[in-house]
Amino acid sequence: MNPSAHARVVGPVRVPTPSFPVSSTYSTGSLLSVTSLTPESVSHILTRATALEHEDPLERAKRLAKRRIALLFYESSTRTRTSFELAAKGLGADTTLVSSLSSSIEKGETLKDTGLTLRALGAEAIILRHNSSGAPWLLERETKLPVLNAGDGMHEHPSQALLDLRTMLAHLRGGAETVTADTLAGVTVAITGDILHSRVARSNALLLPKLGARVVLCGPKELLPDLATEAGPGVEIERDFHKALEQAQVVMMLRIQAERLAGLQLDLEEYKAKYQLTEALLAAHAPKALVMHPGPIIRGLELTGEVADGPQSAILEQVRHGVAIRMALVERALTAGVKA
Amino acid sequence: MSASTILIRGGHLIDPAAGVESRKDLVLRDGRVSEVTDPGKTSLEKVKNGKSKAGNGTNGGGSNGAETFEVIDATGLTVAPGLIDIHVHLREPGQGHKETIATGTAAAAAGGFTAVAAMPNTVPTNDSPEITRWMQAPERGASVRVFPIGAATRGLKGEVLNDFPALKAAGAVAVTDDGHPILKDGTMREVLIQATRAGLSVVQHAEDTRMTGGCSMNYGPTAFRLGLRGMPPAAEYGLVERDIRLVTELSANGKGRGGHSPHLHVAHTSTAQAVAAVRQARRNGLRVTCEVAPHHFLLTEEHVAAYDTHAKMNPPLRSEADRDAMIQGILDGVVDAIATDHAPHAAFEKEVEFERAPNGITGLETALGLSLKWLHGEWKLPLGRVLSLLSAQPAALLGFRGRGTLTVGSFADVVIFDPKAEWAFRAKDSKSKSKNTPFDGWTMRGKVRWTISEGRVVFQGS
Q1: Confidence class of residue A112 from pLDDT cuts 50, 70 and 90?
Q2: Domain check: are A172 and A303 in the same one?
Q3: Residues A211 and A280 in one domain
Q4: Which reaction does it catalyse (chain B) (predicted)?
Q5: Could you say which of A209, B159, B168, B297 has the lowest number of CB atoms within 10 Å?
Q6: A101 and A169, same domain (yes or no)
Q7: Greatest mean pLDDT range, A257-261, A306-310, B58-62
Q8: Where are the beta strands (DSSP E) in B161-270?
Q9: Which residue of B307, B308, B320, B405 is the best one to mutate when testing the A interface, meaning the one whose CB has the most A CBs within 10 A?
Q10: Residue B254: what pLDDT?
Q11: Residue of A nearest to B393 (CA)
């Protein structure tokens, strides 16, 4: 037990690299995280979204006619579920919805077994919403099917970030479909609210800087830890809401996720006083900014009803972009081919 | 393999505790080391005068007329004290679907280990002399020696202390509350006092569980990015520092307690600050020791990136700076032992969402191969010191008399391995009942050819 005299300073040590890649292993059609996207792949998705949106519905419905797509939802959802379903049906696919409250999941069936069952029923891709971060990786690993992440825990919501991007491009870049690493140069997106628990914030903060945008995160420390800036490049923190607004061409507001606070005590009145987006604040600090929100909105909490319904709001427009983006993602899932 | 006498011939003996690193022949008789001589000088060969079959250079039986013996040709191989792992979970009693004492010790033997210290988080908890004896009973079918570590408090609840003298009398070598660390200062203080009186070490899994609820990896930017709640490093080092304060106080008063100071052993150290705290405690002359697991000197939190549940354990994989501090601590001698925290789980238990998966990975069959490949091969820690961290030092740490060395009279616990051989570890070939390892397919260095436990060959590899 004697400390020996072999003291030596360790410099940077060479160690094995992770043996499992971050991006999708089994299927090029999967979309688990925006970290696997490049400007080229984003351009392809945007281009297909527009083409499919404009295509004759009867022609479009032949594209994936009678192909089978499962929607597996462990959490409630209005926008994401409906728009994925409409997207898949718009391409002619048969969809089936399995939700945790009306299936054998209630009886204790695991995610693995549920996925294998869906595959046995002929599902060629699974759209998964799950309350546990990383669940899409498990599903993909076990089923070897393309998986579209429709929101996993506090982790990511890639299709939301893509539809947010399409909304921004429509307003700020004339609806550009081909994007590069500097398409959004000069654009500051201020994301305000419950960043800690937000998969929308993570996907946007990881995607938008790839296209040149600057992302400014705003919120109290409880909901926005300092280390958020280390999660990726091009991300900054501005705790003063007014200052964040002044820099922003896009103001993205987030809901307080009461279901994920896990005992965290938050004074909502104090929160509203500091971070609620009102018409007055918008007029004073960001009169031209685009106001966005992934929904569901809580009127009177993170923003006022007047702002949500006001002229700068693109909230419902985002929902419309969601169907187009998700058509492109569903098509990609079934046509991208499977890696050897 | 039942010969009670074995001649190990032609090998390179490394016995760090005895300061031996040279070619030696060994004779094992009746479970003990009976001779250690220069090559060809054992009594078995001197008497035979060329009559013995042992002279033909192959492994097999030998006889010198007076005695039959088995011959192991260790030419080109390293002969060392059997490895000792002071931190394993054998899952018996109660969780035989994960591992049994028989399968866990078979994995130990395959990994070159001849003694393991088994944690008390069994079902029921190892609270009693009865369970402690049950774990050591011949009926368990253990390949190697099992030293139970008893629970410090009833049911690992941190309230009522168990009967330490009775646990010790039944064979327990230390006490711990394992994954349910003792948070109350008063309870930990009392555990240290009573364990010292009973002549037992106190092993602490240092985690302030008030800071880690709902967490499944290390706290930091990676956890933030992955949307997982993180365990702050302070949850570990804060408790290590608290424990060291208690040991400091009790050691100062030690003269009034029969002259013995408490021995605190920090299990699976994973943060730079915890190693620093142990280093300082040692400078202050305290009996504070620590161990590091191979995954903590090799892997970082980045390995969680694809939510692989084989990268989930407690303490979690930490930052690169922490990982480097583990290597530094091993190289400069603050770390006393490499211990695996072998924690088998059935495949179905790990094939779940990351946050729901149980903590832990297996480690008995990869510890030597990874240590030789990285600590010795890459970071140039002398072979003798690597082996010392895996045998002599852990033996001394928990007071395993006659183990961790191969001097005459010691237990015939021996590992014989090819120090140069590189090979790929395959989880599916593991002797453990569970295959939950992040090292599947990794290159190992050093292939175990024989493991001998108290004179019995318990593993033979090719």
Answers
A1: very high
A2: yes
A3: yes
A4: (S)-dihydroorotate + H2O = N-carbamoyl-L-aspartate + H(+)
A5: B159
A6: no
A7: A306-310
A8: 174-176, 201-204, 217-218, 230-231, 264-266
A9: B307
A10: 59
A11: A1
Q: How far is CA A258 from CA A9, A178, A197, A276, in A?
A: 48, 38, 10, 16
pLDDT of the residue at B55: 43
Maximal CA-CA distance, chain A: 80
Complex ipTM value:
0.92
Q: Which of A16-30, A107-121, A200-214, A313-327 has the lowest mean pLDDT?
A: A16-30
Do A221 and A284 have their domain in common? yes
| Within-domain flag for A176 | yes
> What DSSP designation does A25 have?
S
Separation in Å, CA of B65 to nearest CA in chain A: 44
Confidence of residue A7 (pLDDT cuts 50, 70, 90): very low
Q: Which residues of B are annotated as a binding site?
A: 87, 89-91, 121, 178, 205, 268, 314, 341, 345
Q: Which two tokens stand for residue A86?
A: 């409409």
User: Does A152 lie in the same domain as A162?
Assistant: no
Token pair for B285: 């002359």
Looking at domain B81-404+426-438, its CATH architecture is Alpha-Beta Barrel (3.20)
Q: Containing domain of residue A96, as a range?
A: 34-157+322-333
Q: In chain B, where are the structural domains located? A: 5-76, 81-404+426-438
Asked if residue B124 has a cis previous peptide bond (ω within 30° of 0), the answer is: yes
A166 and A144, same domain (yes or no): no
Whole-number pLDDT of residue B213:
94
Rounded distance between C-alpha atoms, residue A306 and residue B183, angstroms: 52
Among A109, A138, A140, most B C-beta atoms within 10 A, so best to mutate, is A138
Determine, for residues A133 and B333 on separate chains, whether the beta-carbon distance falls below 8 Å: no
Residues 6+ apart with CB under 8 A from A170: A317, A321
Catalytic residue among B341, B413, B429, B440: B341
| Residue B348 with chain A: CB contacts under 8 Å | 110
The C-alpha of B45 sits at a distance from chain A's nearest C-alpha, in angstroms, of 37
Strand, coil or helix: what is B185? helix
Identify whether residues A207 and A288 lie together within a single domain.
yes
B224: nearest CB among A14, A15, A227: A227
B5-76 folds as Urease, subunit C; domain 1 (2.30.40)
- Nearest-by-CA chain A residue for B285: A2
Residue A17 lies in a domain: no
Q: What is the pLDDT of residue A28?
A: 81
| Predicted local confidence at residue B65, as pLDDT | 66
| Percentage with pLDDT > 70 across chain B | 94
B40 Cα to chain A: minimum distance (Å) = 33
Question: Is residue A55 situated within a structural domain?
Answer: yes
In angstroms, the Cα distances linking B420 to B77, B370, B376, B453 are 9, 13, 11, 23
- The total of structural domains in chain A comes to 2
pLDDT in tens, B203-260: 999 999 999 999 999 999 999 999 999 999 999 999 999 999 999 999 887 543 555 7
| Residue in B327, B328, B352 closest to A111 by CB | B352
Do residues B459 and B143 make contact, with C-beta atoms less than 8 angstroms apart?
Answer: yes
Q: Are residue A146 and residue A250 in the same domain, yes or no?
A: no
pTM: 0.92
Catalytic residue status for B341? yes
Instruction: Determine the pLDDT at residue B50.
Output: 45
Band of residue B281 on the pLDDT scale cut at 50, 70, 90: very high
Search chain B and give the residue with CA nearest A153: B227
